[in-house]
User: Fold HAD family hydrolase from Mycetocola reblochoni.
Amino acid sequence: MTLIEDPVATAPPRAVPRPTVAALSFPGALVDTGAALENAIMDVYYESPLLTVFGSPDEVKAVIRAGAERTSLSLIRSLTRSEDHARRIHAAVEQAYRRRVLAAAARPGAVALIERAKDAALSVVLTTHLSRANREALLDHLGWRGLADLLLGPDEAGRPAPAPDLALTALLRAGGADVAELLVVAATPAEVAAGVHAGSARVIGVSADTETAARLARAGAHAVVSDLAGVPAVAGV
Assistant:
């Protein structure tokens, strides 16, 4: 059988425009919070009876790790069918998480990357899964007030990653005109997938861990770098 090429399908690909908006994962790509969420949930487990009904410490940790890329409330909801119980647990976890996350440190090159993007006339949006209170607390802890143009979280953008809502909201709120102009820098497969689903032409994964880097690539990252210093060269900024 002879296949006839479709002239539309074989047309030259559209040139990738220069990025105008950078959506940078915060925390994650820019800030190392370690296992802050897992530790916060386990703090609540050991300090109150709210979580002990869900099994042993190892059983609860297994649930947390299986849902590591979910928001804290979504993860807690998977442990209980009671919305009231879930919200009581979540309030306690948020307090514990704030204590944990305020020990976080910016990754090497984080501030330099933000400043490089701004010098290149990109609007910089910090995107996060953190609640409003915790992201504001972390921003103050790092002394990053005014460093970026916008700070967006799930309460402002709808569905969490891997849905594209946060990335698209970043583009729209920053005044971007085309998803191809959106640069996404991410540290988890879900964040990478969100950028891909949004239509970004430049989704950059960041990880020094070989296994995680492979997962970022499988999620669709256009490039994966081992540290933030490598982002400008592959992002075109």
Remarks:
- The longest helix spans residues 83-101.
- The chain is about 45% helix and 15% strand.
- The chain has two domains: 21-33+105-235, 36-101.
- The mean pLDDT is 88.
